Amino acid sequence: GAVVSQHPSRVICKSGTSVKIECRSLDFQATTMFWYRQFPKQSLMLMATSNEGSKATYEQGVEKDKFLINHASLTLSTLTVTSAHPEDSSFYICSARYRGGEKLFFGSGTQLSVL
Amino acid sequence: GENVEQHPSTLSVQEGDSAVIKCTYSDSASNYFPWYKQELGKGPQLIIDIRSNVGEKKDQRIAVTLNKTAKHFSLHITETQPEDSAVYFCAASIGMRFGAGTRLTVKP
What's the mean pLDDT in B49-68? Predict the structure, then answer.
C-alpha cells in the first residue's frame, strides 16, 4: 500500500516552454503533498507544501509564479515549471502524506532537462 | 525553521562491518524522525522511523537511536551488504526537512 506515482520520469524541453509534473497517490488520500528539488549529489530541498483544496505554502526563495502547484484533489498534485530555463534543470520529487499520518511516501522523481 | 545536520557525508565500509550515520536537529518540538534510502535516479524509500517517545527501534539489520536531550539520532546498519550501498537521508518532522545525505559504499 501507500504508492505514489509520479509522471513523467524524464522530460526534455526547450527553454521558454512550460512543463507539468504529476504526482498521484494510488491507494490513499493524500491530504498533504510536498515538492522537492534535488541537484546531483545533493540533498532534497523542500520547495513547497500543499494541502488539498488550499494554496501551496512555498519555502523562502522559491518563486511561486515560476513553480505553480495545484492540489485540487486528494489524489493528485501537479507542479508546473513555467517558462523553463536551463537553470531549472533538476530532479523533482513529490511526496505525500495522509491525514493524521507522519510517514512520507515518495514518487520516483522526474528528471527535467531544459535545453 | 528546523535545521537538520547529517554526518558523515560519505562512508565506506567493508562488507559485514557496521555503519553508523548521525543527525542532529534544532527544533525541540520535532517528534518524528525517519530515515530514507535513495538509490540513483529514484525517489527516497523509508527504511525506518522513530517517534520521540521511544529511544531505540530495530528492524532486522537496521536500528535507529534517539537522544532527545542532545537532539540527535543515529542510523545503525549491521552486517552490511553491497546492496546497502546508497545515499541515506535523515529528516525531522517539523517541515520535513532533510539532512544533507550520506553516501554509503559497502565494498565486497
Answer: 94
Cβ distance A56 to A48 under 8 Å?
Answer: yes
> pLDDT digit string (tens) for A27-81?
999 889 999 999 988 999 999 999 888 889 999 999 999 999 998 889 999 999 9
DSSP B3-54: -EEEE-SEEEEETTS-EEEEEEES-TT--EEEEEEE-TTS--EEEEEEETT-
CB contact under 8 A, A103 and B93: no
At B3, list the grid cell.
Answer: 535545521
User: Residues with Cβ < 8 Å from B46, sequence gap 6 or more?
Assistant: A103, A104, A105, B34, B35, B36
Radius of gyration (C-alpha) of chain A in whole angstroms:
13
> B89 near B44, Cβ under 8 Å?
yes
Mean pLDDT, rounded, of chain A: 93
Q: Are A66 and A58 in contact (CB under 8 A)?
A: no
Looking at residue A102, its pLDDT comes to: 84
Alpha-carbon span A52 to A4, nearest angstrom: 16
Give the chain B residue nearest A5 (alpha carbons). B43
Q: Judge whether A77 and A60 are in contact, CB under 8 Å.
A: no
**Is the CB of A103 less than 8 angstroms away from the CB of B34?**
yes
